[in-house]
Amino acid sequence: MLILGIESSTVQVGCAVGGHEGVLASAHSSRGRLHAESLTPQIDFVRRQARIELSEISVVAVDVGPGLFTGLRVGLASGKALAHALRVPMIGVESLDLLAFPARYTSRLIVATIDARRDELFYAFYRQVPGGVQRLRGPELGTPDDLASELLATSEECLLVGDGAHRYVELFSGLSKVEMADKGMQYPTATALVQLAHASAMREEWVSPGDIAPLYLRRPDAEANWAVREPR
Known about the structure:
Number of strands: 10
Shape: globular
CATH architecture of the largest domain: 2-Layer Sandwich
Number of domains: 2
CATH superfamily of the largest domain: ATPase, nucleotide binding domain
Strand content: 25-35%
Radius of gyration: 18 Å
CATH class of the largest domain: Alpha Beta
Order of helices and strands: EEEHEHEHEEEHEHHEHH
Strand order of the largest sheet: 3-2-1-4-5
Largest sheet: 5 strands, mixed
């Protein structure tokens, strides 16, 4: 079983191919908001690097959010189009789960964060379990100060991962018992997506493309900006 993973919830966009042998090939890039221009060439590049044809894909996995509206829309639309064309099911994985998964070897409380813009963060709390991580709470939308207050209230040592934490590094690095993860763990990756989706695929936890829906947690920026405009 081969899985194509598409990840696009942040300023980074990426894709990967893998299955029971692990991840065979992956590609990621950060080019501002050029997700639509980057994704199709990446998929073709990854396919060629893995030495497969698209017709060999059994499942298309996508990051469903929360994240940046435009990126999520591009990734989900591309994933659904491919799944329809290939007549294969889909698996959706939340972006904060993808951020927390690479930190699964720490004994600390894992706090995954994504920069939500507008001085807000998407975040969730995780704990290490055999073979991965377990989400304890979230996803939530709040300000950096909201999250800092929650971290101060806990008595546990915490590991912060994600670009949300790094954007407000001066706030979080000053907190006791809080460690910042390396910048190499700033963004969700298509590699983690394929790994988590493969576990779900083995349990046949997939859905039809029409059942995949984004998790925004708030209205898109364009709608919010329109709502606050003064009438002419």
